[in-house]
Amino acid sequence: AVMASAATFRPGTLASPWRGGDGVGGAGARGRRFRGTGGARPACRKSATTSTDVSVSSHPLTRPEIDALVDVTGLDALCEMARAVRASGPNPTVVTFSPKVFIPLTRACRDRCGYCAFAKDPTVGKPTGNDERDEPHDNENDQSSRNSSTPSAIYMSVADVLAVAERGRAAGCAECLFTLGDRPEARYIEAANELKALGFATTVEYVAHCCAMVLEHTGLLPHVNAGVLTFDELKLIRTVSVSQGLMLESASERLVTEKGAAHWKCDTKKPDVRLRVMEHAGELNIPFTSGIMVGIGETRAERVDALFALKKIHDDGGHFLQEILVQSFRAKKHTAMEHHPEPGLDELVWTCAVARLVFGSDVCIQSPPNLTPEADDTKGDSGDGSSSSARRNGWRALLNAGVSCWGGISPGITLDFVSPEMPWPTLDELACVTQQGGFSLTPRLAVQPRFVLGKQNYEQWIDPNIAPFVRVLSDAEGFARSAGWCPGRDESVIGGSSREENFLGTTEGTTDGSVEYGDTEIVSSPEKKPPPSWRAARLPRAKDLVTVNGSFSGFTGIRTGAALVLPDEPPYGSPTGVRTQELTQERDALDSAINRLDARGCFLKNLAERGDQSLFQKLPPFDRLYENGTYQQRGGMCADLSGTASRNVASVHHSGGSIPGDEAFAERAEDVRAAMQILSSRGNHFDKACHVADNQRKQQVGDVVTWCVNRNINYTNVCTLSCIFCAFSKGQKVDAEGFDLRGDAYLLSLDEVSRRVREAWNRGATEVCMQGGIHPEFDGETYLSLIKAAKRGAPEMHVHAFSPLEVRHGASTYKGGVSVSAYLSLLKQAGLGSLPGTAAEILSNDVRHELCPDKLDTKAWLDVVSSAHDVGIPTTSTMMFGHVDDDTIETRAAHLVAIRDAHLLSMCRKAARDGAGDGTTERRRDDSGLSQDSSGYDESDEESLQQNYAYKGGFTEFVPLPFVHFEAPAFRNGVTKKGPTLRECLLVHAAARLVLGPAGLQNIQASWVKMGPEYAGLLLNAGCNDLGGTLMNESITRAAGAQFGQEMGPDELTSIVKNENRTPAMRTTLYKPAKRERLGVAKNAAPLLEIKPSR
What we know:
The protein is α/β, with parallel strands linked by helices and 1095 residues long. The protein is built from 33 helices and 22 strands. The protein is elongated and about 95 Å long. The N terminus is likely disordered.
């Protein structure tokens, strides 16, 4: 229960009655134009009667507990409890909004609610009302919702719907909200006739058609509020929308039966009718929005009745309600209730707080910011387009009451047609107030994250026809991407190497940049089918709504290395008491996560370097990396999923001897959650995570940024495996749409391998990286022959070759099959210098089962690289991220911790073999200063460039590999995202530094092929100290559609490094200084010879 005892709370100051009475009257209630002066206190001022003696649980309260609580608890104490419950739920430092366009498909409605100005009688064009008074309607200031080419039309035309939706898409919207009157054909013959002329029998059929057209032409996700629907109608709309909604409004029957009440004569507003619709929605697994009205004549007790009615439906229906909307009544002209008093701010805040306590931590509580009552009688508008300070204080009060979402907001495209006289606030001012409260304003989709986190949730909640549209708009945490950047190239680049040159939309013939759809076609050649619309590029490119830190606005000091700062004097006024402990708690959570990983890594590294065998008890086996399910089920990172702040790190990892297996796994699970804390950072917390990672990079390896000169030799693109992400291996030539998939299959001869190695050496290379597909004719002898061919080409060349998958294939096919260790020894004897740690993808069997079902599983991959370490072959490590549904921050965090633990165990075994055990616990600084020449580097910095790196076993480096989606078969089939966002890329590299660096894996590489030169440079400020290689003949990433790739010479790499005020240096594969002679040759290399296709 939330309260330790009801007696610990004292009554508040509110005068409004709890049981019965006149509902929302009392001193705090006032009409919009008839404002009272008594009883209203400034928002968020601490009441003298507020009690702070509270204990809070994230579990929802029962009705008896709520009744007991509200009878004796003041508003401030109630808000404190609600705020604490909200803080224990998913994404506790995020407040969302849905960037949307509002499509009022029809304003005709069979109902006549007393407060509604949206519904219009299509025969006379005035609000319907319900008090039987036919007053003239003033249309002077009425902004038409239809904008139809047919002035008398009852329904918006498809062309008009698409025009509005396209303007929204270009402005960065992700949601297309369809709100309309309830089944107008049941009341108006004119509506029925118009539907018949359009070719539809019902309004619902027309809504479904319009949703399908919006998906096809704009990619926006429809959310449909179509009124009271049947089971079959809900099922139909589910196939063309991502979510649906129906407000309960009230559970009070008397509001329907009493003359003059808000819902008098509106049979569809009967609570049991609307609850039955929601029951059907739960049966159909529809993510659903509902909510209640505040101030339409109900009592507080009836309001709580409505909340508990929704809660029961929610629990019985499998937790299908994604958000509870708490909406304040605002009186409107020319309605039956235009003189009805509006509820005060305290009444709305009280209801939001109670809603949070009823539904607990995991259901979103939403309140529209444009309908927020003011805290006092100051002016409503500032005159400059921004909201008044009183309105902003109201938003702060709502945040203080546990509200976690502002709902849908149109970024300057459409009105709130239900309340057009109350415009949405600007996103700038809303972001400022949200940030002051310690939250990041984050765009979301029309479906909440918990419905799209993980494959299981997609399969349960999202129709397969809609799922690809959701994936291309979402990030790894289920929020909206809201930014166009993708790994590999700018997605707005049309043509070139990409087949996705087909696009929707044209601005020709328009004056406002909007898209005319009458003549718009998908551009494609006559013999080819157009691609699915979710895959087609769209012009103009949508506006980015978030900065690199993942929030709408906020400080982004990643390039300057500036520390976390929150301004004391925000542009929209300073907060008044709402700046609560959430910001401090999140800082503590992030700090604790970083400190835990640092302390754990250093302690475990000390054991490993001494060869202390107790390490093997402190690090459990790799058959369990994390507990799957909780993160996805709850919809995000939760405070109680990250216990790092309360755990005494010293007490759990400085104890001597072994620890029980369950405790060892629990410690690993805590490390995974700490890494998740970093990977979930947004806004200012993102900046801090990157800043701390950069500081650790400087402490661990100094300011030198390294790179090597190397050549990729992919000896075959023929592969028997079925990895769904791979655009390099060859399969069918043409897909079902008639597009050429890939070039011809090839297999290099051994002589060609030797020639390419020799040419690379003559161009300054120190390494060749050799990998290829699992060719059906390859066996263990093949890989030995490839190494020998490379050594014939250049005996001094370091051969960095064969993925763990290829090694296992070679071992299983060499002379009837040998152990992996024995085969690795043969490869080493033949000249293998090191092993690329590719084919890791994500070390989660859930991910691997979908992404690469016939590759090594997680344990097998870790076993191969560990075996390589044990026979003296160094390996790199990688992680490919940003693809399938189960690739979440949880699996990424578990991957990082698994890499760390495998590295430590290999170090420990090597130390034991080498006879270590001197007890050294000093934390070393590994300044990777490497060779330089006088033309490229400052000789005065020579001392800081002394090489201290010494390979002690395990991995030499970690290379995050953002998924490039453009040509990937999985993306073309609709089962992946468009790669990770830029924020995710930066956080993965920062988390890698913070997880791996303290454990001794201190080389974190930025892939310029995936990120591009500019953003590879940005990664140097987020923990990276290496840029990989020059990559002659890079082909795998370019096959996936990246525009970066073929080769980047020493001068270009040096320029990237110097632009970030760092010191460049050329290295070898094993992070030793490259000879000056090699650098000189590389800087003056002749162009590569043209490669002729091999068969």
